[in-house]
Design a protein that fits this description.
- The protein is an alpha+beta fold.
- It has one domain: Gcn5-related N-acetyltransferase (GNAT) (Aminopeptidase, 3-Layer(aba) Sandwich).
- Helix content is 39%, strand content 21%.
- It has a seven-stranded mixed β-sheet with strand order 1-2-3-4-5-7-6, sandwiched between helices.
- β6 and β7 form a beta hairpin.
- It is globular, with a radius of gyration of 17 Å.
- 32% of the residues are buried.
Length: 194
């Protein structure tokens, strides 16, 4: 059993490093970020997104910050203009291609499961499932649907075990496949004590 909790601001730098390591060979990030200074770009972009998710949604880590998951509610504000500008700079020459991409809309009113990652040396120990399950349970308290996108078919199987179903698959010319998935709210069992 892994201890999990809501991340603090002091955890975000470490959590961004975890995500950058976990996503080093991920098809989507390899496609949307230029190859030059790829790892540095990836870590900085993860840190920016985690700060936004921490401020406006939920970021969950394990007690030793070896795994992280982030979620945003449907009413989360758009990132600040400064954050958007920096993200655009980090995407560099890939920005125009990314901006022209059209992916299916998420179900209306759904939370967005933004990311999950585990330090590569700690993968396979259940840490990813632990932080993900904790975040999902918190969102179930809001009785909300949760949507996500993934570009790794192995992730699809994990998410299906957690109640997600594939709604769409988008094939990007010269790019990765994108699986759009959603998980309806899970009923929360309440027990009555007599």
């Amino acid at each position: 059993m892994h201890g999990v909790r809501i991340a603090t601001q002091t955890n975000l730098d470490t959590a961004a490093k975890v995500l950058a390591s976990a996503f080093a060979d991920y098809p989507w990030t390899r496609w949307v970020l230029p190859a030059d200074e790829y790892q540095e770009r990836l870590e900085e972009i993860q840190r920016l997104y985690l700060a936004h998710a921490s401020e406006n949604g939920i970021v969950v880590v394990d007690d030793r910050v070896r795994a992280v998951a982030a979620f945003l509610p449907p009413n989360a504000p758009a990132p600040s203009a400064a954050l958007q500008q920096r993200v655009a700079e980090l995407h560099g020459s890939r920005l125009e291609t990314l901006m022209s991409l059209e992916l299916p809309q998420s179900p209306e009113g759904s939370w967005t499961f933004e990311t999950v990652g585990v330090e590569p040396t700690q993968q396979g120990l259940g840490l990813g499932t632990a932080v993900l399950s904790h975040g999902l349970a918190l969102i179930d308290a809001h009785e909300a649907t949760i949507s996500l996108e993934t570009s790794d078919e192995r992730n699809v199987r994990l998410y299906e075990r957690l109640g997600f179903k594939t709604n769409d698959v988008t094939t990007i010319p010269n790019g990765p496949m994108v699986y759009s998935m959603a998980r309806p709210t899970q009923s929360i069992q309440k027990t009555n004590q007599s």
